[in-house]
Amino acid sequence: MTTLSERYRSHTCEGLRKSDVGNTIRISGWVHRVRDHGGVLFIDLRDHYGMTQVVADPDSAAFNIAELVRGEWVIRVDGNVKARDPEAVNTKLPTGEIEVFAREIEILSKAAELPLPVFDEPDYPEDIRLKYRFLDLRRETLHKNIMLRTQIIAKMRERMSGAGFNEFSTPILTASSPEGARDFLVPSRIHNGEFYALPQAPQQYKQLIMMSGFDTYFQIAPCFRDEDPRADRLPGEFYQLDLEMSFVEQDDILQTMEPVMRGVFEDFSEGKPVTQEFRRIPYDEAIRKYGSDKPDLRNPIEMQDVSEHFRGSDFKVFAGILDADEKNKVWAIPTKGAGSRKACDRMNSWAQGEGQPGMGYIFWRELEGVFEAAGPIAKNIGPERTEALRLQLGLELGDAVFFAAGDPAKFASFAGNARTKAAEDNALIDEERFELCWIVDFPFYEWDEDNKKVEFAHNPFSMPQGGMDGLENQDPLTIKAYQYDLVCNGFEIASGGIRNHLPETMVKGFEIAGLDQSTVEERFGGLYRAFQYGAPPHGGMAAGVDRVVMLLCGAKNLREITMFPMNQQAVDLLMGAPGGVDANQLSELGIRLMPKRED
């Protein structure tokens, strides 16, 4: 409910309707634009809530002031509400049936020449938009996105509370922890030479909350990571819906959070269909079918292994690859509607642009009344193998298949990108829906080729499937973890796991990754110590607030749903951060600056 000041307004600029005709009212806001129609001035007055048309004619006492006002000046208007002529009604505005005839206008604040246009929202350089973000935020689209963000977060809180979760806050100044990125460090004045770290995530704290006997936890948590900018994450900081539960298995968490996340999407999907039953796709299957652990399931293409059709064939390129190493495979990317030379040439050119030698293909066409398979590969492997391939993939006239060959570990990502490209080029993706799924059974470890060692593939605090027995008796690279991601339309929007709550299992898990017990106790002392005093089985997840909002807003850039973001160089152009500090501040902290390194 809006509280109105008698000094400035009796109504908001969205609040007037035809039922107010004949009333004397007061409104205040920003001048969106001024139009002169034959000596009569029309002022579109805008505030946070909406827009009202104000009219000042030469007979009005307010006319002389109205002639002075310019875009983005802030004014107060007293006037009479009148009905618009039928032909002048603006159906796009809630206030479109009325206008306010100005009796008095007060200029509350003038605006200098604008560095950034607000009216009509033309494209403008991003650095200007960020430097003058307070003007950018007045633009309708961005303003609405920010308000939608607040509504989404409020709904998250409502649904989490409804699901029985308790909201707790965790510290911002904490100890450095290995979350996969660099910490932002904060020097301590009291403890010279020592540093706090801003939390990359509340991981250890939320586990400690479970150790403390609280059964559930959540918060909208700020997270800080000093990492290079990425397309799907803002530099510096982001927010996540963070949660943890005690006495649960993986299924309990997925079953609890699925209706919460589905409900949030349904609340703001504007009628677009939302997945009702989230598929659970093992990581290995996701890579094999989609070439990605965050597949866009709106894309109907599923890749298939077609190696047997090429083994021993006359297409020596693929046959040779298969003979060279038993790990090697040929994957097919079957694509409906891509059955033309032009479409295949386009994919081939794209592959070359990705650093590949090209993209093998077969397409099916009708030539002089005959249904045939076309392309060099079809000619090399012959009609029998080609037909068997077509039947396996369920392809018809006007369809095509593209191929990737080699070691799947090396080409899976490229194949996944090719799957996306083929679907986009042939309009196979249904843009008007939200497809959600769980990716489960992630590998616990991976091989670090640079350092020639085993390291954690994802979250080191997760429970390995098989527990201590698996850690002691399995090849580490075959161990799966109780870890899961929630994916929507090709974006990872949440990640979580069942935690490794047994101290001996925790130590063994870190030993395999090269950290001995003394290092574990030193780096994770609080958590390790808590595990010694009765730790409940527990697990949780964290959903990226920014990504969820971006999807629901239909935005392509995280800066379009964030109030005061940095630019891609991690600079806050509005506030001028990062910046220097004076010598006295550095002296208090016991810090001396090194000369800048020359790159």
What is shown here, in short?
The protein is α+β, with helices and mostly antiparallel strands and 599 residues long. The chain has helices at residues 63-66, 126-131, 133-136, 140-162, 203-211, 250-268, 283-290, 316-324, 341-353, 376-393, 408-425, 467-473, 503-512, 517-523, 525-531, 545-553, 583-589, and strands at 24-37, 40-46, 51-56, 74-83, 98-109, 185-187, 195-197, 216-225, 236-246, 279-282, 304-305, 329-335, 361-367, 370-374, 400-406, 436-440, 445-448, 453-456, 483-488, 491-498, 538-544.
Give descriptors for this structure.
5-stranded mixed beta barrel, 7-stranded mixed β-sheet, 599 residues, alpha+beta
Question: Describe it for me?
Answer:
- The protein is an alpha+beta fold.
- The chain contains 17 helices and 21 strands.
- The protein has a 7-stranded mixed sheet with strand order 8-9-21-20-19-16-10, with helices on both faces. The protein has a 5-stranded mixed β-barrel with strand order 1-2-3-5-4.
- The longest helix has 23 residues, at 140-162.
- The mean pLDDT is 94.
State the helix count.
Answer: 17
Structural class: alpha+beta
Main beta-sheet annotation: 7 strands, mixed
- The unreliable regions are none
Can you list the strand order of the major beta sheet?
8-9-21-20-19-16-10
Rg for CA atoms: 30 Å
Number of DSSP-assigned strands: 21
**Beta-strand residue fraction:** 15-25%
Mean pLDDT: 94
